[in-house]
Specification:
Blueprint lengths: L1 H19 L7 H11 L1 H10 L3 H20 L6
């Protein structure tokens, strides 16, 4: 069940980043692939690159806390 939830969240992030980049003259394929592999981190970096630093910082901190939590439990999840 958790796998399907994370898959849906990943797809939402990919679609958002790929469709929103057209408004900022960025490559939808490049950012979509980046979001596919790095999820929340890619979303945070993308938001910072598009001058939405507040939200970008929130997502990067959210990703960092998740990574620290997964390291504490012995499994690294990018």
């Amino acid at each position: 069940m958790l796998f399907f939830i994370s898959l849906i969240v990943s797809i939402i992030i990919i679609v958002y980043v790929a469709t929103d980049c057209k408004h900022y003259d960025k490559s939808p394929w490049g950012w979509g692939i980046f979001a596919f592999f790095f999820g929340f981190l890619a979303l945070g970096i993308y938001l910072c690159q598009t001058k939405r630093v507040g939200w970008g910082t929130v997502w990067i901190v959210f990703w960092s806390i998740g990574e620290l939590f997964s390291l504490a439990h012995g499994r690294l999840v990018l």
